[in-house]
Specification:
The protein is mostly helical and 287 residues long. It is built from 15 helices and no strands. The longest helix is centred in the C-terminal third of the chain and has 35 residues.
């Protein structure tokens, strides 16, 4: 101890605590800096335009807060309809992708059939094709099927995801084959094994992927803009773009629309964040 103190070097424990404190400080400052625009957006969405455009900006004036902007946006500007459309499309796409991807991932992970590896490489190769490349052929295909300007045209092209197939296949490969063989010996059908054994063991990656799929579907702008030409089928991203164009100077209404689109995503993530973090970690470790 005397030698360590005479050398003038701080103890290793003190150095470690100092490093953690500095890391925590940097992360906290970064988090606060990233939250500033979100806090102002929500605050501005509840204030009149005269307060929003003030310089310097008004951050918190609770006496001026009201829900009038949300009522104007949801009822008079049609955002209530856009919200329901986005919710319907995002929920259906999320469950459809999880269902189809889990079945395909189970087949690639636990079944041996001719051409399995080649077919899996073909599925993975589609991840390298940008959506802009297939956008026009996909649009023409939907027209040929009479699905343009319909909910079917919004949902059908997104019910299968190569990325989700890959992630679930990686997770299912870690399930012991002996467990599945024991279930088969006991007389369990493949559907029973899939729904009662495999899926419950993969609930963490399923929850993580569910968040990612819901977020991507909720924020999708290009495809709903292309496939729909009726205002009754617009989703929130399309509605916000129209709001920005038609009400350029109505900042308070724009912030209300942006908050309507942001808050559901925040709620979903807060409810499932534990599964999301665990799912991403496990998907990266298992293979």
């Amino acid at each position: 101890m005397a030698t360590a103190s005479m050398s003038g070097r701080p103890p290793a424990r003190a150095t470690s605590l100092l490093g953690r404190a500095l890391s925590l400080l940097v992360l906290t400052l970064g988090g606060v800096f990233m939250m500033i625009p979100l806090v102002w957006m929500i605050s501005a969405s509840m204030m009149p335009l005269s307060e929003v455009i003030k310089v310097p900006p008004v951050w918190f004036d609770i006496s001026k807060w009201s829900l009038d902007n949300y009522f104007e946006t949801l009822v008079n500007l049609g955002f209530g309809r856009y919200f329901l459309n986005s919710l319907l499309v995002a929920v259906v796409i999320t469950f459809a992708q999880l269902f189809t991807s889990s079945m395909a991932g189970y087949a690639f992970a636990k079944f041996r059939f001719p051409g399995r590896n080649v077919l899996f490489l073909v599925v993975l190769s589609t991840m390298m094709i940008p959506f802009q490349v297939i956008m026009i052929p996909l649009f023409l295909m939907m027209i040929g099927l009479n699905l343009d300007n319909t909910f079917g045209g919004l949902i059908l092209p997104a019910i299968v995801s190569p990325f989700c197939i890959f992630m679930l296949r990686q997770s299912m490969m870690a399930i012991p084959n002996a467990l599945l063989e024991a279930a088969r010996i006991d007389g369990a059908s493949e559907f029973y094994i899939f729904f009662r054994i495999v899926l419950p063991l993969c609930r963490t990656p399923l929850a993580a992927l569910g968040i990612l799929i819901f977020l991507a579907s909720w924020d999708d702008y290009i495809w709903p803009l292309i496939i729909t030409n009726s205002e009754t089928l617009w989703t929130l991203p399309v509605g916000i773009s129209r709001l920005t164009q038609q009400y350029l100077s109505q900042t308070h209404l724009q912030m209300a629309g942006a908050s309507i689109m942001f808050i559901p995503i925040l709620i979903v993530f807060l409810l499932l964040q534990r599964h999301f973090i665990e799912g991403i970690a496990l998907s990266g470790l298992k293979g």
